[in-house]
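Question:
When you can, review this sequence-structure pair and walk me through the tokens.
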Amino acid sequence: MTMRGFPKKGADHLPALGRIAEQTRKRFKLGQEAVVLVAELACTLPGCPPLDTVVVFWTPDGVRHRFKIFKPVVQVTEEDLPYDWLMRSLAAPEGFDDDCC
């Protein structure tokens, strides 16, 4: 069943979004006040997995960071998150704007 263009998700979808957000906070030592967004996106490009998970977060200095995991949210585990020492490489360069996040 589709509602407003979104496919119906299972009961484990919403808790998985929250779990990934909390794992991201823990991994990158972000406080509860930090904005962390998690979304599952469909991809129609050849060779792209049908669903992937996108995580975006902002550090207190206002820098946006993002990463993508090529799995649906319910399949993402803490081991799929980038290492904390990669945080600097996840930062979007100033003035950078892509169509993802």
Remarks:
- Helices lie at 13-27.
